[in-house]
Design goal:
The protein is an alpha+beta fold. About 15% of the residues lie in helices and about 40% in strands. The termini are close together.
């Protein structure tokens, strides 16, 4: 039997039992791909990350959902950085190697912030569906859609759907009966990130408040909702650039209220069009597992 230490952290958390939960294995050396996938299913969180040695960065990170491995994801990157820092006397700056590239991370103002991979860089392209078609899939009216839904990729490709109001974001509910019509990304995943400006979530620092939700299809043929999605937040930054909005930009993204896991995500797009996503990480448990 082999023993592996792990930690449970809540990412984008405004309170101890808020945020998006993540399991981080401190040192996954010796684990097979099949064991990592099985452990991700065992914990059954949106993602589980596995830390390994790296020759090009502070550490290497592999990310698994219960169903598949991810090239890049936001909340595992922040949560993994938090754990690596704790294991290295409070390291405040580090790089993570993942399949999606090298992720720089820094700890400042009580939160971790990542910069999206430089390569392949943000990519935005049109969606093949009409606004009416996307609205119907989300249980909304066409007039709820602000502008054309688009595919965006800053490390993880997702469908972004801009809405006219936070009330429309709140009402959105994907129709599982239309799942077969839903477009899939390059990895075959079906998801949608809906968002709208929301003055109610102004944090008092001048950041623009955004209300967002992220839906994804499950293997059971229905939709689930993610509490806090860092990769989608990064894609929102690429959308902001593509729309020609003023830079630099600072946004506060509120997500997760509907699934009772409120998350606060800090999105910054600088003058050089680099995209930064941050949030607080709170550790709530440590343990050891034998396989």
């Amino acid at each position: 039997m082999r023993e592996y230490a792990f930690r449970i952290v809540n990412v984008f958390a405004g309170q101890t039992l808020g945020g998006n939960p993540l399991c981080v294995f401190e040192n996954a050396s010796g684990m097979s791909d099949e064991e990592m996938q099985a452990l991700a299913l065992q914990f059954n969180l949106s993602e589980t990350s596995f830390i390994l040695p790296s020759e090009v960065a502070t550490a290497r990170m592999r990310i698994f959902t219960p169903d598949m491995e991810m090239a890049f994801a936001g909340h595992p990157s922040l949560g993994s950085a938090h754990v690596i820092s704790a294991l290295n006397q409070g390291l405040g700056q580090l790089d993570l190697e993942c399949r999606g590239g090298i992720i720089p991370l820094v700890f400042n103002d009580s939160r971790w912030t990542l910069t999206t991979p430089a390569k392949p860089g943000p990519h935005v392209q049109a969606c093949q569906l009409t606004m009416a078609g996307v609205a119907a899939m989300l249980g909304l009216a066409e007039e709820d859609i602000l502008s054309e839904p688009v595919w965006v990729n800053t490390g993880s490709e997702q469908l972004l759907v801009p809405l006219k109001s936070s009330a429309a974001v709140w009402r959105a509910q994907p129709d599982a009966a239309k799942l077969s019509d839903w477009p899939a990304n390059q990895l075959g995943r079906k998801s949608a990130y809906v968002f709208a400006a929301d003055a109610a979530h102004d944090d008092g620092t001048g950041r623009l408040g955004i209300k967002a939700r992220y839906f994804f299809a499950t293997k059971g043929g229905s939709f689930a909702e993610d509490p806090g999605t860092g990769s989608a937040c990064a894609n929102l930054g690429a959308w902001w650039i593509e729309q020609g909005h003023a830079l630099p930009a600072s946004l506060m993204v509120s997500q997760g209220e509907q699934v009772r896991r409120p998350c606060q995500l800090y999105l910054d797009v600088d003058l050089n069009k680099k995209i930064h996503v941050g949030g607080k990480v709170i550790e709530i448990a440590q343990g050891k597992l034998q396989i």
